[in-house]
Amino acid sequence: MESEEAARIIDLYQRKASDWIRSRARTKLIEKPWLDRFCALLPPAAALLDLGCGSAEPMAAYLIGLGHPVAGVDSSPTMIDACRKRFPKQEWIVADMRKLALRRTFSGVLAWDSFFHLCHDDQRRMFPVFAAHAAPNAALMFTTGPAHGETIGHFAGESLYHASLDPAEYRSLLDRNGFRVISHVVEDPDCGGHTIWLAQRI
After folding, report:
1. Which end of the chain is more exposed for a tag (fewer CB within 10 A), N or C?
2. 187 Cβ partners below 8 Å, 6+ apart?
3. Residues 27, 53, 82, 90, Cα dihedral to 10°
4. For residues 9 and 199, which has the higher predicted lDDT (pLDDT)?
5. For residue 13, is pLDDT > 90?
């Protein structure tokens, strides 16, 4: 069952979108080594799906700069407006990732610092969504917590919900949905303590 904190995530990011955009603009692209690993699994100019794209800065911006067309999805209209202003030639979609059904596939699917805001059951239900949008050999990369549980962080003076399944369950969900794990690093010290999964569609 979804908690109150989890249910407030979409509203929080819409109300605090400007704060998030300003905060993210002040940070460096510490994710670059992982984005490069992700891109190493892709053909040139491969189409990518970014779930929870935020304002597209800096991650989608980096991928676009490498020549990858990006379709970005975010639940916040303010975030998507910022994407459209910055990168008008890309595709930007206001949508809840849990209900996404674009009826097409991509060579790469990214859910960085977004998927982990979903409650446990919603995370489980996302793996068929990943698979439905992943072309053969597609790369999939997402961030989670290090172990099963729920954590309440804070952003702009408000509670911010995070959840994680057990790593063994993530491996099982990936396997059942046609992905093999390429790399899994827990609390990577070179990437701000992120726990990262990189997988590839079989």
Report:
1. N
2. 146, 193, 194, 195
3. 120
4. 199
5. no
User: What is the DSSP code string of 114-155?
Assistant: SGGGS-HHHHHHHHHHHHHTEEEEEEEEEEE-SSSEEEEEEE
- Residue 3: pLDDT above 60? yes
For residue 16, give the nearest of 128, 159, 136 by alpha carbon: 159
Q: Is 20 helix (H, G, I), strand (E, B) or coil?
A: helix
- pLDDT of 75 over the 90 cut: yes
Element spanning 107, H or E = strand 106-111
For residues 98 and 130, give the distance between their C-alpha atoms in angstroms, rounded to a whole number: 10
Contact criterion met (CB below 8 Å) for 57 and 29: no
The structural domains of the chain, with segments of one domain joined by +, span 4-201
Pick the CATH number of 4-201 from 3.40.50.150, 3.30.70.1140, 3.40.50.720, 3.40.50.2300: 3.40.50.150
Q: Supply the pLDDT for residue 2.
A: 60
Q: Is 187 left (phi over 0), alpha (psi -120 to 50) or beta?
A: left
Q: What is the pLDDT of residues 155-190, one digit of tens each?
A: 778 888 999 999 999 999 999 999 999 999 999 999
